[in-house]
Specification:
Strand content: 5-15%
Number of strands: 4
Length: about 400
């Protein structure tokens, strides 16, 4: 019997279908190879374990949205008892750190230099203004507009101090029929750290999933080892899973370590279950790893991959996920863009699982959105890799 011509069905043992079929032993070998490579690479360990600790400490202690002990000046131009009483009311609050002065020129230079964030002027005719309410403002509040949030806080809080002081001057003031006692759910102390640290875990996972994967796989393209792997009998699916499985494991370990650090070191309560936390993290790693893989496949260059991962992964997760800035306060076109960012759903889910508990009505839509974005990333990455393999 004559042998088939070159390139016929018997040109490769087992045929193309058998060579490219899914094989668990090949997958295990690829995972082992990639795991050993990750363990031996100091930069991988640095990004996966050291950087998360540094970032969490920074967001827990260096970054704070709490407004406390804002430095302001109180210019007391009147020597009356009422004026001195109002100045004492400003000095007695824990949210303001008061610098007393007798002339506004004493504090104006400090406002310009940034030593003070504003100052309150209690005028010379304070008693006259107090006796005829409504004719003129009781005090003048000047704030540093270069920091709008702090300026608004100083202006509003100064107004509140004056109103509280005025309400307490007369003992015969009528008792209000309704007494309001504000309470805050999920974060009763209003500590920004308890909202920032869960969100910081999302940033850490983005770095591990997107940036680390993009760099490592792009390095293989640069060195030519990726082409060598693609030339083996392993299928594209096996190669992609083998590449990403170790980094998926690193991400899950980093999640556990970050959650432990947040709970025991930063006093952030974990009111939800560990199962919910790990489920959310596992699903978030799908789009994170898929985006990193896609970047590496398209660029094949470490420097370019790092830049694209920074601008398409880290920065959107940092700025547009609701981690630092409220999404509802953004312009409508930017709000629409945030729906394409996986970290938007992960930050919301992390804050819920840490501060509120297992609220699956919040988790399920977020899980579906993250999984859908991840499937798109992986489908494009597999398509591009398959084209490179067949070229």
């Amino acid at each position: 019997m004559d042998a088939p011509p070159y390139g016929g069905p018997r040109s490769r043992p087992g045929g193309e279908r058998g060579a490219r079929g899914f094989d668990w032993r090949r997958l295990a070998a690829l995972v082992r190879k990639e795991s050993l490579q990750a363990i031996r690479d100091p930069s991988t360990i640095l990004i996966a374990f050291v950087m998360p600790v540094v970032l969490l400490f920074l967001f827990a202690y260096a970054v704070s949205l709490d407004v406390r002990e804002v430095r302001i000046g109180v210019v007391l131009e009147s020597d009356t008892a009422a004026a001195q009483s109002l100045a004492a009311a400003f000095a007695g609050t824990r949210y303001l750190k008061v610098t007393p002065a007798r002339d506004r020129r004493e504090v104006a230079d400090q406002l310009v230099s940034g030593k003070l964030r504003g100052f309150v002027v209690i005028p010379q005719d304070f008693e006259r203004r107090l006796a005829s309410p409504g004719s003129q403002p009781l005090v003048q509040v000047i704030t540093d507009g270069s920091q709008p949030n702090t300026a608004n806080f100083v202006a509003n809080y100064a107004q509140g101090v004056v109103q509280t002081w005025g309400a307490g001057r007369t003992e015969s003031a009528p008792v209000p029929a309704i007494s309001l006692g504000p309470r805050f759910w999920f974060n009763a102390e209003l500590e920004s750290r308890r909202a920032l640290v869960p969100g910081a875990i999302a940033i850490v996972m983005t770095i591990i999933g997107t940036m680390l994967t993009a760099l490592v796989v792009a390095r293989e393209w640069e060195r030519g080892t990726m082409e060598a792997i693609l030339s083996t009998p392993a299928s594209v699916t096996e190669i992609l899973i083998g590449k990403l499985a170790p980094y998926f494991t690193l991400g899950m370990i980093a999640t556990l370590a970050s959650a432990a650090l947040a709970t025991f070191a930063f006093d952030v309560p974990l009111r939800g279950s560990l199962l919910a936390l790990m489920t959310l993290s596992a699903v978030f790693l799908i789009p994170a790893l898929g985006q990193g893989l896609l970047i590496s496949v398209l660029t094949r260059n470490q420097f370019l991959a790092s830049q694209i991962a920074l601008f398409s992964g880290f920065l959107p997760s940092f700025l547009l996920s609701g981690f630092l800035f409220e999404i509802d306060a953004m312009p409508l076109p930017i709000q629409l863009i945030t729906y394409l960012i996986p970290a938007r759903y992960f930050v919301s889910s992390l804050q819920t699982v840490f501060l509120a508990g297992d609220v699956w009505s919040v988790f399920l839509p977020n899980l579906a959105a993250m999984a859908a974005i991840g499937v798109v990333f992986f489908a494009i990455a597999k398509h591009k890799t398959r084209k490179n393999l067949e070229a």
